Structure formats: structure tokens, C-alpha cells
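C-alpha cells in:
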């Protein structure tokens, strides 16, 4: 049946709207491709940095299970497992990634880091040896320093620590590691300087404060360092100094430090109380 002339404009408009909708649908579908990749990438970064470790593991395990061809999901799973303290589980994933066609140099660095956490120092060194010397990053040299430490290659370790410090704007942790390396070698003064530097970059790094007290105590100095600390931290550091003094045979000094720790702590300091009781019992016995 022929269309009425009056209906033609309506039909034309309807067809035009339909065609426009189809075009819009095609454009949206096209846009969703790259946008979804960008969204995935952003979400991956968020999950790796901001999410709780086990939550990140669950997210990447599910994502990788649904898209096993996506190496970024497998990287995320491996990295999140390490972050969750499950390096042994991460190692097979990193191994598969570095052996794949989509591997990048950073993958080998991350694999080495997981191996170190899993206690496989020899294989970690093997992986680091395969990284081109031109790939110079903070993480690479931090791991190189740790491996050199494990092999007691002190000059090599010092060199790598120094390079690592120069490649980051937040060197507190690597300075603390370097200081601990010096502490284990018996270079107490050098260790003290490095712990002080670490704290200057991160005044809240309690591990460096505790190590600083140990380095000073090894030199017979049991005074609290002039660094920012809470009452709880001060009590804990006094406890550390006390134990160091007792181990070095200075029981009277240790007893006084334990008493100070108990008095300083805003709540009951059970560990210090038990240590003092044990010391008193030993003296009476």
C-alpha cells in the first residue's frame, strides 16, 4: 500500500532516528573497547596500592581466572600475593610471566624480589644477572644490594645501596637496610649514621629507630637518641636498650632501663615487666 504524503515526513524522521541510534550504539561499542582497558588499568593500580592485600589477591585471582590470556591480570595476582606475604605462591606466576612472550624487564626484577622473600637467594641472583645493565631502577639496585649482602660481598653491597639511594626520593627503607647491613658487620658507627639518615627521611619509621638504639647500645651508649617518638615508642626503645645492655653483661644498666620503660609506657608494659622480674629472680637466685 502506498504511503500517504502526510505520513512520509514521519517515516523519514523515524528512519533517521533509528539510523542515528544505530550509529550511536556502534560508537559506544567502539568506545567501550579502549575505555574498558583504561578502566581495568586504573582499577588494577588501585587494587595493587590501596586495597587490602587479601582483597587484591581475590580480585586478581578472579580476573585472571576469567581472562587467563591477560598478562596484566597475572602480574597483578603475582604482585598482590607478594604484598599479602605469600611469596611462595607468587613465584610460579612470576616464573611463567618471565618465560612468556609478553615479559618486560621489570617482570624479572619483581620475580627476583619474590624469590628473595621466598628465601631462594641463588635464583634471585640468577634472575638479576639476566637484567641488562642499562635497566637502572631503584628496585633493581635495592635487590642487588640485598643479594650482595647475603653473599657477604660488602663492597659490592655498599655500592649498590648507594646507587639505590640516589635513584629514589624516599630512601628511608633502603637506608635502614644499609644500616642493618653495617650493623651485622660490626660497623656500629657507620650503622648509626645510616639509621639517622633513614629517620630524617621518615620520622615515623620505627624499625630504623629501634635499629639506631641497637647501634648505639653496641657502642655502650644507652641514652635515647634525639628523634621524634611517642611515649609507647620511647618505652619500647628503652626496652630494646635494656635487653642490649643485659646481653653485654651490664645488668644494672639494663635493670634501670627496664624500670624506665615500665614507668614511661602509658599502659601496662608486660614484656618489660616480665624481663625485669626475670632479672630480679636471677639476682636473688
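Residues out:
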Amino acid at each position: 500500500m502506498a504511503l500517504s504524503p502526510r505520513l512520509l515526513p514521519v517515516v523519514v524522521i523515524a528512519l533517521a532516528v533509528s539510523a542515528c541510534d544505530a550509529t550511536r550504539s556502534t560508537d559506544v561499542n567502539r568506545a567501550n573497547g579502549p575505555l574498558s582497558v583504561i578502566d581495568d588499568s586504573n582499577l588494577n593500580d588501585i587494587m595493587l596500592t590501596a586495597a587490602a592485600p587479601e582483597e587484591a589477591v581475590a580480585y586478581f585471582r578472579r580476573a585472571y581466572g576469567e581472562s587467563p590470556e591477560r598478562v596484566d591480570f597475572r602480574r597483578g595476582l603475582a604482585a598482590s600475593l607478594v604484598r599479602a606475604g605469600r611469596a611462595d605462591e607468587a613465584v610460579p606466576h612470576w616464573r611463567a610471566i618471565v618465560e612468556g612472550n609478553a615479559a618486560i624487564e621489570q617482570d624479572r626484577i619483581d620475580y627476583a624480589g619474590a624469590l628473595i622473600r621466598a628465601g631462594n637467594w641463588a635464583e634471585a641472583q640468577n634472575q638479576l644477572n639476566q637484567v641488562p645493565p642499562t635497566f637502572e631502577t631503584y628496585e633493581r639496585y635495592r635487590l642487588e644490594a640485598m643479594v650482595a649482602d647475603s653473599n657477604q660481598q660488602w663492597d659490592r653491597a655498599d655500592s649498590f645501596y648507594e646507587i639505590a639511594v640516589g635513584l629514589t626520593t624516599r630512601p628511608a627503607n633502603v637506608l635502614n637496610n644499609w644500616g642493618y647491613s653495617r650493623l651485622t658487620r660490626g660497623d656500629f658507627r657507620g650503622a648509626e649514621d645510616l639509621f639517622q639518615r633513614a629517620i630524617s627521611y621518615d620520622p615515623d619509621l620505627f624499625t630504623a629507630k629501634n635499629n639506631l638504639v641497637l647501634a648505639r647500645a653496641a657502642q655502650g651508649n644507652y641514652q635515647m637518641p634525639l628523634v621524634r617518638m611517642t611515649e609507647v615508642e620511647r618505652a619500647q626503645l628503652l626496652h630494646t636498650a635494656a635487653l642490649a645492655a643485659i646481653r653485654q653483661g651490664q645488668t644494672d644498666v639494663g635493670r634501670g632501663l627496664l624500670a624506665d620503660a615500665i614507668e614511661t609506657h602509658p599502659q601496662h608494659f608486660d614484656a618489660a615487666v616480665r624481663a625485669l622480674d626475670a632479672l630480679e629472680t636471677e639476682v636473688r637466685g
